[in-house]
Design a protein that fits this description.
alpha/beta, four-stranded parallel beta sheet, 6 strands, 46% helix
Length: 300
């Protein structure tokens, strides 16, 4: 009874502070009133408006996206009440700050850490603005757990409890910061400060961090990179080219969701949605995967 609905920010706010909802009003009305489907509105599904050429690194980003969130929630109040502040903020941090795939095309742990701060501040501003505009709003996070992305930059032995804590927090960064998991005693706080995040920033999050209402968890068995997902599982074909019976392979693929989803729920102590999943290169494989998901949900 619900669907993820990604709103192109550049189209909704073509100029700073100028909002245009005319192109989306009728589709949202159709979803809600005709089809009786609840839209979960993604405020940013990766791209920023063209007037923000450095993307999430633009100094205006945190406050601008907060204002945009408040404008959307005010406009759709009474019709929409489920919002996702940022689709996969972990990927934004990686692609913008660590691998240089998206603006501002940076490739260092320093830029990863600082971009994460900007994204996390934006998420907090959005959450506050949405809840101010509509006190009945439901905030749904959309988070993949990208394990191992900065593990090589943790200068501690892997069997050290501090290494484990830093690796865990970094796998869901910047959500771990935005949702209030990084207090002064958390070794990830000192690790972030080592890479240029200021003490003032950390204090700001300790005073202002906001949890969502529902924790969204994304996982694609054909890609891997879930919680403790092994390198041999990182294939684009969960059926292993048909060498395993498709239904058996599908059950194995679905089972790989469980450790990450359970870890995410325990870490943030929130109810969980499986907000994205898909697998299979053939119709038969996709059907097998969907059927296996049904069995898995019943088991959970």
């Amino acid at each position: 009874n619900s669907i993820r609905y990604s709103v192109p920010w550049y189209k909704a706010e073509p100029k700073p502070g100028v909002y245009d909802w005319s192109w989306i009003d009728k589709p949202v009305q159709y979803l809600v009133e005709k089809l009786k489907i609840i839209p979960i509105m993604d405020l940013i599904h990766y791209g920023t408006p063209t007037w923000m050429p450095d993307g999430v690194a633009d100094e205006r980003f945190p406050e601008a996206i907060g204002k945009y969130a408040g404008a959307m929630a005010s406009h759709f109040k009474g019709l929409v009440n489920h919002y996702s502040p940022h689709n996969e903020p972990q990927l934004t941090g990686i692609f913008c700050g660590l691998t240089g795939r998206w603006p501002p095309y940076q490739k260092s742990p320093e830029s990863w850490a600082k971009i994460g701060v900007a994204v996390a501040k934006g998420m907090v501003h959005e959450t506050n603005a949405i809840r101010t505009a509509d006190p009945n709003a439901v905030i749904v996070s959309i988070d993949p757990w990208m394990t191992g992305v900065v593990d090589s930059h943790i200068s501690l032995p892997k069997d050290d409890a501090r290494w484990q804590e830093i690796s865990l927090a970094s796998a869901c960064y910047p959500a771990s910061l935005a949702y209030g998991k990084i207090d002064a005693a958390n070794p990830f706080a000192a690790w972030l400060e080592k890479w240029g995040v200021t003490g003032r920033d950390m204090d700001w999050f300790r005073a202002n961090a906001r949890k969502p209402d529902i924790l969204g968890y994304n996982f694609y068995p054909d890609f891997g990179f879930g919680w403790n997902d092994s390198p041999e599982n990182r294939t684009k074909d969960f059926t292993r080219a048909g060498t395993v019976p498709v239904k058996e392979a599908a059950r194995e693929a679905v089972a790989r969701i469980t450790p990450g989803l359970v870890q995410a729920q325990r870490y943030f102590d929130l109810p969980v949605y499986l907000t994205e999943t898909s697998a299979g290169l053939s119709i038969e494989a996709r059907i097998a995967y969907i059927e296996a998901l049904g069995e898995w949900v019943a088991e959970l």
